[in-house]
Design a protein that fits this description.
The chain folds into two domains: 1-43; 61-271, MetI-like fold (Orthogonal Bundle). It is built from eleven helices and no strands. It has helices at residues 2-33, 38-42, 55-67, 80-111, 113-126, 135-142, 145-170, 174-182, 187-225, 230-239, 243-271.
Length: 275
């Protein structure tokens, strides 16, 4: 097993090295093709144009940013660590509110066929709506960009948790529930001692999906509301035509998303059981 993991890591690093090497070698050729002719210079085309930076420039940018990630030089000049911190705060706040509602409501839907029939039409209508479609309404009602971004995270996080919780609770083996009834456990004790441990892997799957969606949506939401956050950082650097910073921030978004997914993956493995 250790040998397999070592080979897989080595293969991943080899693929990464090849891709970076091709990227690094392709950039000078691309710039050479785009050189201006004498006629283009005379016509005013001699102004420098932003091009795709090579990996070496991105590594230098990453070193500069990560060596001091929490600097604060004003509203439009904050370190990448501060920007990610703002985004994580919004994501975790909206996500936590969604979990507080989705998991208990999912238990209710999963344990009661009547509630499932009553609430399913509302879920099916609201679930396909894009989270960003709620942004104008949220801005009008809440009248606060911070609260609106948190609301968007809440609305996009709630559905995977709600559906997976209801599915997991409804799928608990009836034998286990009947044993709880035989021991005259109350509904609350049955839900806590029997149903929750049995449905935990499915619930964690929904929570894992939700955190990924929330991190994806916050980038777009912050591009709209502006101010702070990793999404605003990407948009601000694009307006400055600093593609090196844009690519660096994209990579940071991916790394943070991978870390969040890995955390929930570990939690999911902890509660997974074999029947």
């Amino acid at each position: 097993m250790v040998g397999f993991k070592t080979r897989s890591i080595f293969l991943s690093l080899s693929i990464l090295a090849v891709l970076l090497g091709v990227w690094e070698l392709a950039i000078p050729a691309q710039q050479a093709v785009g050189e201006l002719t004498e006629y283009e210079m005379l016509m005013g085309g001699a102004s420098p144009k932003a091009g795709v930076p090579p990996p070496s420039e991105i590594f230098i940018k990453a070193f500069d940013e990560l060596s001091n990630p929490f600097y604060d030089a004003g509203p439009n000049d904050k370190g990448i660590g501060i920007q990610i911190g703002y985004s994580l705060y919004r994501v975790l706040t909206g996500y936590g509110l969604a979990a507080c509602i989705a998991i208990p409501l999912g238990f209710l839907i999963g344990m009661s066929p009547l509630m499932y029939r009553a609430l399913d039409p509302f879920i099916q209508v609201l679930r396909p709506i894009s989270p960003l479609a709620w942004m104008p309404l949220a801005l009008f009602i809440i009248q606060d960009s911070e609260g609106s971004a948190i609301f968007v995270i809440f609305i996009c996080s709630i559905w995977p948790m709600l559906i997976n919780t209801a599915f997991g609770v409804a799928g608990v083996r009836r034998d286990w529930v009947n044993v709880a009834k035989t021991h005259e456990l109350s509904v609350w004790k049955t839900a806590y001692l029997v149903i929750l441990p049995a449905a935990a892997p499915t619930i964690l799957t929904g929570m894992r999906i939700s955190i990924g969606i929330a991190w994806l949506v916050i980038v777009a939401a912050e591009m709209l509301v502006g101010g702070t956050g990793i999404g605003y950082y990407v948009w601000n650097e694009w307006n400055n035509l600093d593609l090196t910073s844009v690519i660096f921030s994209i990579l940071m978004i991916g790394v943070v998303g991978m870390i969040l997914d890995s955390i929930f993956g570990l939690l999911q493995n902890r509660v997974t059981y074999q029947e």
